[in-house]
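Q: Fold this one first, please.
A: Sequence and structure below.
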Amino acid sequence: MIARSLSRVWHRVRQFFGALRSRVTPTERAAAYHWLTPAEQTLFETMMLRDQQHGIVVLSRVRASAPHEDRALFAAALLHDCGKGHVTLWQRILHVAAPWAEANLARQSGSAWRQALWRLRYHPDIGANMAIQAGSDAETVRLIREQDKKPADPRLALLQAADDA
């Protein structure tokens, strides 16, 4: 129990410092674009750099474990956080470290910082709706929408495992 808690804390510390030095190389961007339609590429470009980088890492993990090439799954890996929009580091920390506080502060309308907390809290549904607007196929949309739900199938379980790794 203690080892698992310490492992989770260490994971979050690495995640924090990784967010401070986010970058996506032209080669990584080109590899990501291979799996996205032009409209999905535009959606990918609206994401914060740290979310783009994270999506590319998740894609790499999914591809390493997927039994075959699966464009819908790979697109979902890249776009699963597109609903977050622009959020600051302190908002991300609050989202992870104090979800109970976030629940009390998040608002769909009002001040920008409260809206950012709302987007963090509801980003799977927001992102799925953005993917629909970008013309993503139904399976990509489903995987984005269900990313935080109990996995009902191996593809969703694979996406969740890659996101949590």
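Q: Good. Now the second chain.
A: Here it is, same layout.
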Amino acid sequence: MRINKYLAECGVASRRGCDKLIADGKVTINGKPAALGDDVTEGKDEVLVNGEAVQLNARHQYYLMNKPKGYICSVHDERGRKTVIDLLPAGAGRVYPVGRLDYDTEGMLILTDDGDLAFRLTHPKNEIPKTYLVKIEGSISDAALNQLRAGIELDGRLTNKSKVKVIETDKKYTKLHVTINEGRNRQVRRMFESIGKEVTFLKRIKIGDMGLGSLERGKVRKLTAEEIFYLTNL
């Protein structure tokens, strides 16, 4: 395995960051300064960064899915509905969806067996921003937009402040980007319901600054080492 990839998968830094560490002479392989392009063998070569040994973390599986409507974010469903697990490739292992997207909501979903990452991305205290594409019927007033941004009372307490931006509108519909840093049940839909607007389309398009890229609806791919590093350091 190339040294920069090895270091990235050890969680040292992004692959680009690892290249800089190597170029700065802070990485050694078996006591000798590492060079860009060097290969290492797990379990055979000793790799040090700033004099400290690094090793690969436990092997976890990480997948990115562009969830379609009509699937639930669960491993099993007592009602026999299709689950996101049905979309995974053969041999994916026992991975689980991180957080939930409603049955009728589509978009970006992480699936993994890494409990630490799942906790990081979903625990309210971490306030990880998630951005949604929202479509509603008709127009929306500036006053309503400001209500959404300031916080909406759900279940007796205000939501955190959110970012709301109109990206397209006409007399029939409005499309918006909405960024929230909580994960309450059906939060985005309920926020709009509270101002008298029904969401007709909802898609999660980003976690932090990481998006779906060219991943098509219903498709799944493995996360890259750089993406794993990004998510674990959000």
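Q: Anything worth noting on the second one?
A: The first helix runs from residue 3 to 9.
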